[in-house]
Amino acid sequence: MPKSEANRKSLAGRLKEAREYLNLSQEEVARQVSLPRTAISQIESGQRRVEALELKKLAEIYERPVAFFTGEISGNNTLPTDVEHLARTASKLSEQDRQELRRFAEFLSTRSELKGQR
Questions:
Q1: Which domains does the chain show, CATH number per domain?
Q2: Residue 118 DSSP class
Q3: pLDDT tens digit sequence for 8-55
């Protein structure tokens, strides 16, 4: 397989995975990007190239940097995907809400430690 085709397939897989992770339908994404649903399907299957502005919009919707989709950076090197999602979501909260979330996370951590001691 030529390198450009392999890159397109890799991009397609990352886009589909990000959409599914957020439980978005192709129709929902298509509306936000102003494309037909079939275009999203073709992009996700690697049959259609993604224009730069489309990729930028998809990255915004999926709350990931463009470099993640192009393979320049990997989301798997630092934190699990669900933890990254929690962090992105928490970053949008007020400082007071983030403090409350931090206390709750500490509570869960302590509870898990106590269960492990039994």
A1: 1-75 (1.10.260.40), 79-118 (no CATH)
A2: -
A3: 899 999 999 999 988 899 999 999 999 999 999 999 999 999 999 999
